[in-house]
Amino acid sequence: MKAFAELLDRLVLTPSRNGKLRLLVDYFRATPDPDRGLALAAVTGDLDIPSVKPAMLRALVMERMDPVLFAYSYDYVGDLAETVSLVWPGPEDETEGISVRLSDAVAQLRSAGRADGPAILARLLDRMTISERFATIKLVTGGLRIGVSARLAKQALADFGGVDVVEIEELWHGLKPPYRELFDWLTGKAGKPELSAAAPFRPVMLSNPVQDGDLEKIAPPDYAAEWKWDGIRVQAVAERGVRRLYSRTGDDISGAFPDLLEAMDFEAALDGELLVGRLPEHTGTFSDLQQRLNRKTVPAKIVQQYPVFVRCYDILQEGKEDVRPLPFIERRKRLEAFVGTLDPSRFDLSPVVPFDDWAELDAMRHEPPHPIIEGVMLKRLDSSYVPGRPKGPWFKWKRDPHVVDAVLMYAQRGHGKRSSFYSDFTFGVWSGPDDAPELVPVGKAYFGFTDEELRQLDKYVRDNTIERFGPVRSVRAEPRHGLVLEIAFEGLARSKRHRSGVAMRFPRISRLRWDKPANEADRIETLQALLD
Amino acid sequence: MQPHELLQPRPEGLYCPPGDFFIDPVRPVQRALITHGHSDHARSGHRHVLATRQTLDIMALRYGPDFAGSTQEAALGETLSLDGVSVSFHPAGHVLGSAQIAVEREGLRIVASGDYKRCPDPTCIPFEVVPCDVFITEATFALPVFRHPDAAHEIAALLKSVEQFPERAHLVGAYALGKAERVIRLLRDAGYERPIFIHGALAKLCDYYQRRGIDLGRLEPATMEGNNKAAFAGEIIVGPPSAFADRWARRFADPVACFASGWMRIRQRAKQRGVELPLVISDHADWDELTRTISETGAREVWVTHGREEALVRWCELAGIAGRPLHLVGYEDEGD
C-alpha cells in the first residue's frame, strides 16, 4: 500500500507526461503481483470496490475527534478525503505505519458488507500512514483524480514491457484485474495472452494533418475524400451477443449510450463518428454531443433530447471476417452494403465527396455544406486499415480556424519546464459602451507561441503586472495600454459558466500583435455573432 | 503578581513592565530580548539586544555589525536579573541559536517559547521543557491536519526522485536560515556525498553553520559556466523558495521543483506553488508536538500567538487549561 500511496502522491503533482510514465513504469517494475495489477486497475477505473459515502466517512472521524477541531481542519484543507487522512489517529509510527499490502486492503474492503464496511475501513486506516490513508479513502469514495488516463496507463505498460501500445489496447478488454497474464507476458514469463473475449477493441487508424508540400506529392485520383465531422471517433462492435461502444483510445463508453447499443443488432466492427441528431435530416452541434459525453450512465430525458447516431466511415470486421487487410475501396463497398441493412435512425454513411483537383477540394473545405463539418479527410484507395498513424494513407485537411484579436488580462506560471515562466494566458475582448469599454475574459491559452515568444510574453507580464494572487498576475489591460493576442480557435459554444457567455474550443495564441493598439481588439459582439 | 503585569502585548511586541524590556519586538526599542535570528523576530535598530551568541552572530551577518547599539550574550540555562526580573534562555530546537525565554518574578514564571519544534534536528540543540505557570506558544501549524513525518523519510523521497530522474535537476526550496542547512545536513546523514549547489542567498549562513561545527559537506555555488544546462542534471540545488519562481531557475535542465516546508502537508498548497515534489520538513512544531509540549510544561494558562490560534485555544478548553489568543502583530504566518 505504501508504494501505491507514494505513486499517487507523485502522479498528482507531476505535470509532464513523460514524468508520469517514468513513475508508472518504475512502480510496475518494483511491485509484485497482484498488487501492481490492482494498482493498474485503480488507475484505469476498473477496480470495483463497494463505496463508502462521504457522510459515513465523516461519521467515522467524528467518533474519534472533537467536532469543532474537525470543522477547523476541514475548513482549512477543503477536501474531505485529505482532511480525514490527516486527522485520523494512526499508528504510533506515522512514517512507517503497520505494513498493509494493497491486495490485502482491497480483499478486506471487497469482502465488506454494507453493515461492517465502515468498521473494516476504520480498522485499515488505524494501521496506515497518512499517504496510505489518503489513497485508501480515495479508493472507497471513488475517483482517484490523479491526471492519469487509461490511455496513459496503457502506454506505461507498453513501455514497461517493450511492446507497442496497440497490442495492449487490443488485449485490454479481454483482461481482468489483477492482470496477472498480462504482467507475465510483459515480464517475459509467459507468451502473449490469447485474445478470447468477444467484441474486443481494434486499435484505430489515425490520419496526419495536411502540411505544406504534402499535396504536391500525391495524386487526386488515388484518394477518396470525405467530410470531417465534428463529433467523436467511435468503434461500434457487436459479436456473439456482446455489444460495445469504444472511444478511439479503447475506453468502453457503452454505459452512456443505451439507445445506440439497442440498435447494434449486427455482427461486425464499425468505425465512425458519434454525433447527436435525428436522421436523416438533423445533425446536432458538438455542444449538443457534450450533453452525452463523460457520463457513466445517462438519464432517459437526455437520451430523448439528444439522440445519438454513428456516421460510419469504415468497417473492420464483418461477421467472421477480418476485413482490415482489404484496400479502402473494397472496405468501402462492404461498408455501403452493410450500413444499408442497419437501423437508419442510428447508422448512416459518411458520404464520399467527389472532386477533381486539390483546388476544388480546398474550396469545398472552406465552404462546407453543413456547419458541423470541420474539414475533409483524404483516404488512399488502396490502403489497408493499419493501427497507429502511418504517414501517407490518411490525411485530415481541416477548415482554417476562427481568429479573434483579444487583450491579455492575466498570466499564470506554468509547470515543469515552464515553472519560472508566465505561460498560461487569460485574454478578453471588449464589451460595454464605446466610451467606457470593459474587458470580459473569453478564454485561456497556453500554447501556440515559440520559445522566443514565450520569453517576450514572460517579460511583458513581469513588466506590466498590476496585481498578484499566488501564481497569477493581473496584467495592465486598458484601451490605451495592453497587449493584443491573435487567438485561433476551432469553435464556440454558449456557456453559463463563463461571464462572457461563450466558451472557446481549442484556443491557442496564433500571433502576438505588438503592433496593434489594445482598443482595436475585437468586441464580444463579434464572438456572439459566431454563435448563431 | 498577575501574569499580565509581568508580560503584556504592546504594538511593539511582548513587553515586561517591571523589567522594562521587549521580547522579539517588531519596532526599534530600548531593550530587546531576541529568541532567534529569523527576520520577523530579530530586527535591527534596537538600542540594546540580549540573545544567544549564535543569534547575535546571525543578526550581524544579516544586518551588518551595527545592527544594535550594544549587545549582550545570553548563555543557555544561565539566569540574569533585569531590574528584579529573572530572565533565562533555554533551547527551543527551532534553528541554530534559537531559545525560549523564561521570565520570572515573585514565584510567577512565564515562558515565551518563540518558535520551536520537538523533532530531532542535527543543526541545533533540542528543545528543553521548562516548567512554568504561563506558556506562550506559537501556532504556525496549530491544526490537527499538520502532522510532520520523520524528516529522514522525506529526504529518502528526494533521493529516490534524483535516482528516478537523473536527467533533471532537483531544486529544493528552503528558507535561508535553518531549513536550508538542515536539509543539507540531512542529505549528508542519508549518505549523499555529491557536492550540493546553493543559491547565493544561502552562502553566508551555510558558511556560518560550517564554522559553528555543523558539517555540510562540499557546497558549490549554483552558477553557470557558459550555457551548459546539462551541467546540473542529476544534481541537487538548494535555494530560497522565492528564487524558483524567478528567472534564476531557468539555468537548470528541466527542473523538479521541490519545497521543504510544513505547508507541503496540504496537497493544494503544493499544487498552487507548482511544486512537483513536496518535502514535509518543518522547523515548527506540528499539532501533536504543540499539544504535547503544552501538557509537559504543566502551565495552567496558555497564550497563543502567530498562526491558527483558534484551534489551539479550543484544544486548551477541552484539556481544562485556560487558553487565550495573544494578538501580536508582525509575525509572518508563512515563514517555514
Features:
heterodimer; A: 532 residues; alpha+beta; D-amino Acid Aminotransferase, Chain A, domain 1; OB fold (Dihydrolipoamide Acetyltransferase, E2P); seven-stranded antiparallel sheet; six-stranded mixed sheet; 19 helices; 19 strands; globular; B: 336 residues; alpha/beta; Metallo-beta-lactamase, Chain A; Rossmann fold; seven-stranded mixed sheet; 9 helices; 24% helix
The low-confidence runs of chain A, each spanning 5 or more residues with pLDDT under 50, are none
Helix proportion range of chain B? 10-25%
- In DSSP terms (H or I, runs of 4 or more residues), the helix count of chain A works out at 19
Q: Work out the helicity level of chain A.
A: 25-40%
Main sheet properties of chain A: 7 strands, antiparallel
Tally the helices of chain B: 9
Terminal Cα span of chain A? 54 Å
How many domains in all of chain B? 2
How far apart, in Å, are the first and last alpha carbons of chain B? Answer: 36 Å
Strand tally of chain A: 19
Structural class of chain A: alpha+beta
Write the layout of secondary structure elements.
The complex is a heterodimer of chains A (532) and B (336).
Chain A: H1 2-13, H2 17-30, H3 35-44, H4 54-62, H5 67-77, H6 80-87, H7 102-111, H8 117-126, H9 130-141, H10 150-161, H11 165-172, H12 180-186, E1 208-209, E2 223-229, E3 232-239, E4 242-247, H13 258-262, E5 268-276, H14 286-290, H15 300-305, E6 308-318, E7 321-322, H16 328-339, E8 347-349, H17 358-366, E9 373-380, E10 394-398, E11 402-413, E12 422-431, E13 438-445, H18 451-463, E14 465-469, E15 472-475, E16 484-489, E17 491-494, E18 502-505, E19 508-513, H19 524-531
Parallel strand pairs in A: 1-10, 6-8
Antiparallel strand pairs in A: 2-9, 3-4, 3-5, 5-6, 6-7, 9-10, 11-12, 11-15, 11-16, 12-13, 14-15, 16-19, 17-18
Chain B: H1 3-6, E1 8-10, E2 13-16, E3 21-23, E4 31-33, E5 46-51, H2 53-63, E6 68-73, E7 79-82, E8 85-91, E9 99-105, E10 108-112, E11 134-139, H3 151-164, E12 170-173, H4 179-189, E13 196-198, H5 203-211, E14 219-221, E15 236-239, H6 241-244, E16 256-260, H7 267-272, E17 277-279, H8 287-297, E18 301-307, H9 309-319, E19 322-325
Parallel strand pairs in B: 3-4, 4-5, 5-6, 10-11, 11-18, 12-15, 12-16, 13-14, 13-15, 16-17, 18-19
Antiparallel strand pairs in B: 1-2, 2-3, 7-8, 8-9, 9-10
